[in-house]
Amino acid sequence: MVELEVMGVRIEMPANAPMVLLRDQLSKRHLVIWVGSGEAAAIAQALDGLTPPRPLTHDLIVDLLEELDHNLTEVRITDLDEGTFFAELVVDDGRIISCRPSDAIAIALRAGVPVNCAEEVLAEAGIELADDADDEGDDPIGDEEVEAFREFLDHVNPDDFVTGEEPDD
């Protein structure tokens, strides 16, 4: 398994298709996963540190585990089959719960646990973008990386990354 950093949520134009961008710190490979709008909002809220006045579904899952004296230890993106990504929640008692990657990422961010990815998935779907500007203290996604990502988006079609998850619209 390779630990990934959640870089953010982006909208692919002109289709308005939300996606989450993850990055392997060591190899600088990136993983793009198309997600539904509700999950994209949940991931973005967690990244921004926003806490709703009452728990939303992903918050509720973390709260339920804690109330049952369990903790999430990690989430795993385990497989890619015909363009659909698969993920798992790993609980401290050894239980493994299958889920969509978008939900796994939203829950991981709330629980403060790593998002790990099978090397085979990253090898198949990972893309390499320009070197990061992190070393210079710039924005986590530097100008060169943004430009490379835009170049990638100019040549990709959402159908190239079928996730099996339909937007909530």
TrEMBL record:
From which domain of life does this come? Bacteria
Pfam families, A to Z: BFN_dom
Name the source organism: Parenemella sanctibonifatiensis
Q: Which residues cross the membrane?
A: none
Recorded GO MF terms: nuclease activity
* Protein name per UniProt: BFN domain-containing protein
Concerning InterPro entries, the annotation shows: BFN_sf (IPR036104), Bi_nuclease_dom (IPR003729)
Cite the PANTHER family for this sequence.
Answer: VON HIPPEL-LINDAU DISEASE TUMOR SUPPRESSOR, VON HIPPEL-LINDAU PROTEIN
Occurrences of domain BFN (ranges): 1-129
